[in-house]
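Please predict the structure of the following assembly.
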Amino acid sequence: MKAKNRDQSLSDSRELDGSYDQLTDSVEDDFELSTVCHRPESMDKLQEQTKFTKKELQVLYRGFKNECPCGVVNEENFKTIYSQFFPQGDSSMYAHFLFEAFDTNKNGSVSFEDFVFGLSIILRGTVNDRLNWAFNLYDLNKDGCITKEEMLDIMRSIYDMMGKYTYPTMQDDAPREHVESFFQKMDRNKDGVVTIEEFIESCKKDENIMQSMQLFENVI
Amino acid sequence: MATGVAAWLPFARAAAIGWMPVANCSMPVAPGDNSRKQDELIVLNVSGRRFQTWRTTLDRHPDTLLGSSEKDFFYNEDTKEYFFDRDPDAFRSILNFYRTGKLHYPRQECISAYDEELTFFGIIPEIIGDCCYEEYKDRKRENLERLQDDQEDNKDLKLPHMNFRETMWRAFENPHTSTMALVFYYVTGFFIAISVITNVVETVPCGSTANQKDMPCGERFTVAFFCMDTACVMIFTVEYLMRLFAAPSRYRFMRSVMSIIDVVAILPYYIGLVMTNNEDVSGAFVTLRVFRVFRIFKFSRHSQGLRILGYTLKSCASELGFLLFSLTMAIIIFATVMFYAEKGSSSTKFTSIPASFWYTIVTMTTLGYGDMVPKTIAGKIFGSICSLSGVLVIALPVPVIVSNFSRIYHQNQRADKRRAQKKSRMARIRIAKSSSANAFLHSKRNGLIDELLELTVRKTP
């Protein structure tokens, strides 16, 4: 990425202004480019830790490695891949939240283990596990409770992802209204935040949500 | 990249967990994935070399031969593999296209062979990746030019039913087509030379007569020179009118460069005839005679090298423009500097900045006439910097122009060589074809004869 910037500066006049120091950047370049190349743990270990069979792990890894030959996904890549599934809207915010949720050790990149663990929970986990994972996704600052602002961010990102051309068209304050109705449903003690127990309890009581959970059975 | 992303579909479906709890109604059921049968290995046998890949890899591009059911035509039941009787080296890059999603053009492949392979496997060449696309386009353009050259030669054949006008036009454009055209070509060339020599000799001092000092030949032998000029102009006028008559598109012909040169070459004479010996306009008339020198450009119809030079200059217009622009910039800078440097010295020739322009130009092109010379020390320092930088600025665009010229010149030479060798090449190709056809027929005939013998032998035990 830095090397590209270096070439670009020949065509604009940043170089002439002296605001772009070529020398130091080039030295840093060499160290940055020899970045991490991650190899996952052995398949047996992964099989123990997740609920996937050997064949499923093979298929997953082949797809993963094809897309990211160096073995890890960084956020940019993640967003690009995700945007190809949702071309009509802007899915970058939602992809960012997803990335945060997958990246459990917070090192800025998702390795194959993170990827597979996350998928295992979502696709093969119990209902409690899934709800836990969803809560983790919503809780942006990981403090154990979802505030209205966090929920609003998430809601906006989902609405952005759907794009402007939905039918029927969404109003601009639709996210906010949706957040209100969500909090009404989930927040039992009306204290303005949703804790994990409230979340799991309310979801279990909601038939729609329980039915949707069945979706994940046949994904892979 | 899109090809591999299909493998991330489970992930995309799993990500739906994010909006599921907030959805107002239950989610629709995902469509059943029928194609998720067990992924199997396919063996592709290309002229003996076996390639193996997953079926899903090939299915990524269903609009090609390998991705669609068209490959079933090549399926061999006995060996359970797909057999293609094609070039295995070119097939490598085609298979890599399925694997990585990027099509690369291998440099050592012949461009037309590669194109044929792509067409066979149903892949459009436009998807060649950026890394190889320029090379591909360059080679393709070269090949096309070569083919076009060949085609143009074929146009020399006489087409039937050409009317008089078309025959004349063809005679003008290609002097080799008939003897008349050749005669016309040489006559016009001769008269152009005569006209140019006349113009030059006109101004040479011819030796003094008794009563007057040296006067130029033009004034001494006015009648002779006038007759010569008239003859040349008549020939040129007749030629121009004939070309105008024969041209397939008169409007386009009149706009072409050669026709403008023709007109400019003969116009001064006619204007001179029309104008009388009026004192006021005779000055302008003298200026007009300068345009007679344009007759020398008429030689470009006769000389291919001149045409190539003109074409090169046209194609290097941007480099020439850059040269001009940078020279102008440098001239203005140095002229200003020299003017202010020499302002102090007395009786200096650098009277103004425009006056210094002359010095700068002469110095930068390393001419150094010496009519304007700096006298102060600062002036001399800046003068030397000026001459050094002049060399650099002029040397920069010149290699580009030279390489352009060289490329066009070699192309033309190649075309000429091919044209010259065309007859022998055609004969060679004809002999090769006929000999192989003969051998084939011969072998078939021998086969038939052998069969006949066998039948007869068997019948008569």
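Confidence is low (pLDDT under 50) at residues 1-10, 23-34 of chain A. Residues 63 and 132 of chain A are 27 Å apart (CA to CA).
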